[in-house]
Every structure is written in structure tokens, then in C-alpha cells.
Design goal:
mainly alpha, Four Helix Bundle (Hemerythrin (Met), subunit A), 149 residues
Length: 149
């Protein structure tokens, strides 16, 4: 099977990413797979296998997001994210069962928003990490950021 440019880029960027960047990369996988499934549902409804594979890939990305959460460090935030990611996963499963593009579109909207939020947080985190210790606070936040996500 021939890889497309997006897949090759994602694989390379995941293998070389810092831990705090991996959450954003997982969102990228989720969004690309869900968009691919949505496009097929809208334009190639007879490609059942292609739709199924794209939705499974998006579901796996949700599972990775859920399994990346550290409940001890993240506390209530991690619990809430677990509920959100679980909801997305269920929506994608139902979309796959019913071939429902609306469910995929709903998850896509949320996932894009969350991805943007995580990307902003990672950017701010990196800026803080580069700042002199007295400005960044030196409170150990740098070692726990990725564990929450």
C-alpha cells in the first residue's frame, strides 16, 4: 500500500516529537482520518471499506488520547477530558455503524477546536520553558504538562 504525503509527514513528525507535542500530533491524526471519512461519506458512500478504515483510524486516535491521560497528575481536568474523548469515540463508532456524516462533522468541529487549544498551550509551555527559571516560576510544571494531556 502506498503512503500519501500526509501519512508520511505524520509518521516522521511523531517519531521525532517531544512528549508535549505528541498530543497535538494525535489530534492531527484524528482530524485527518475523520475528515477523510466525512469526505467519503459525502461523496463516495459506496466505499464502505474506505469509510470504515478511516473511522477506525479516528477511533484509535481517540483511544490514544484517552490512554495518554494521567489521572493522578491531571485530576479533574483529566477526568473531564476522558469524558470528552470517550464521547467522540462513541460518536465515531455510531457514525461507522450508521454511516452518518453528521456525527463525524460534530466530532471534527470539536477536535479542531481542542487541537487549536492544545497547540496554543504547548506553544506557551515551550515559551515558559525557554524563559529564565525565575520568570517561569521553576515550579515543576515543565515535567508534568504532557502527562495531563
Amino acid at each position: 500500500m502506498r503512503k500519501n504525503n500526509e501519512q508520511t509527514y505524520l509518521e516522521t513528525s511523531i517519531l521525532t516529537a517531544a512528549p508535549e507535542d505528541l498530543i497535538v500530533k494525535i489530534f492531527d491524526v484524528l482530524i485527518i482520518a475523520a475528515q477523510h471519512a466525512h469526505d467519503k461519506l459525502m461523496n463516495e458512500r459506496d466505499d464502505i471499506e474506505g469509510i470504515h478504515k478511516a473511522l477506525l483510524r479516528a477511533q484509535r486516535a481517540c483511544t490514544v488520547l484517552m490512554s495518554s491521560l494521567n489521572m493522578e497528575i491531571g485530576g479533574e481536568l483529566s477526568q473531564n477530558l476522558l469524558r470528552v474523548y470517550g464521547f467522540w469515540h462513541r460518536e465515531l463508532v455510531m457514525a461507522n455503524m450508521r454511516k452518518d456524516p453528521e456525527r463525524v462533522a460534530r466530532v471534527l468541529g470539536y477536535a479542531r477546536d481542542y487541537r487549536e487549544t492544545w497547540n496554543t498551550a504547548v506553544t506557551q509551555f515551550k515559551a515558559q520553558r525557554r524563559a529564565p527559571k525565575d520568570l517561569a516560576g521553576g515550579d515543576g510544571v515543565t515535567s508534568t504538562f504532557a502527562a495531563v494531556g
